[in-house]
Amino acid sequence: MTVTDRPATYREVFAEPTFRTLFVARTLAISANSLQIFALSVLVYASTGSPLLSALAFGAGFLPQFAGGLLLGSLTDRLPARPLIVAGYAVEAALAATLCLAGLPVVVNLLLVAAVACFTPVFSGAASKVIAERLTGDAYVLGRSLTSMSSSAAQLLGLAGGGVAVATLGARPALLVAAVCHLLAAAAVRIGLPADRGDAGSKTGGAVRDSWTGAISMLTNRTIRRLLLAQWLPSAFVAGSEALLVAYAARRGFAPGAGAILMAAPAVGMLIGNFAVGRLLRPSVRERLSAPLIILLGTPLITLLAPLPLPLVAAVLTLAGTGFAYGLGLQREFLEAAPADRLGQLFALLSTGLMALQGVGPLVFGALAELTAPATAIAAAGIATSLVAVPVHLRRRVG
């Protein structure tokens, strides 16, 4: 094993104080977001009785990120990272408090959620840029692995905490809990992240025009576009399948609450996969396994066409979730392809596509499920996911 092919260790990653700070803050913020989404959905449904508005409350923060990432992404490279990230968490805290205390109409609340979501790629892109600048080599890849693992754990924690908070305190007080978590995240970044300087002086023209120009230049770069699509498409397809798990469980006649178990299973698999692939395998092995892991992410979903018992369905979804670790094998090439003066904007663009397409995936496969059946649509999502492995494998052979 060469020195450059030696896998990094968690000790090396957490030895970087900047990563520790952003890791803790991001975990708090994701938990708070999951809690907020759940509490707001409950609040909207309780006040309107409308499943559609409740669903919109759940997804209102996703699709607007598309516009924000395209039109505001260059701010990640123009402005200092610390105040930008702190402002992002502070705005999220203000939003949660407003949703709780202001008593605004449902439509206004949803518009506020959408407006704040437009800026989310900017804040998240700035944090990703800082991590990429502070962690080098395989430590960066392992740092991305830890970030993915913490995201899964934080989402599970936020949903579980949201259920407990709503049951014990009520939906509105639960939103205040989310606001406090966001404030803690902002404080952690303000105290623990060193000050830096933005690069506004090296940029010309307005931020919106610069963002649009940068996004177009990166999307027309064949290498960057391929790596973005390789990370966007499987997530979108799998999100489409996960959105159907409640309907699948009901159609199969599983006990009430089974849908929640099935929705948690891929997140558990993601935790396992990111640990095993990120920590136990050499960088060169990870990169060779990108395409096989994409196949692992998709093909188990096809087996849901069979009338499997609930424990086996949960096991299949957990196995499929381990395939999310395929992204670790793309990170070195992705970082090497990034333009030095638009590193933050590239991460904002990655986040934009992930969020936007994860909103589109459920619509596409949900429509297919309406025409066929949930199991059929889930299997179709699995097939579509597996097909992404073909260009990833062929490109690696050419490279």
Automatic annotation (TrEMBL):
The chain crosses the membrane at residues 21-46, 52-72, 84-104, 110-132, 153-169, 175-193, 227-248, 254-277, 289-306, 312-331, 343-365, 371-394. The keyword rRNA-binding does not apply. It is a multi-pass membrane protein. Pfam families: MFS_1. It comes from the Bacteria. InterPro entries: MFS, MFS_trans_sf. It is found in: Cell membrane. Keywords: Cell membrane, Membrane, Transmembrane, Transmembrane helix. The keyword Transmembrane applies. This is MFS transporter. The lineage of its organism: Bacteria, Bacillati, Actinomycetota, Actinomycetes, Micromonosporales.
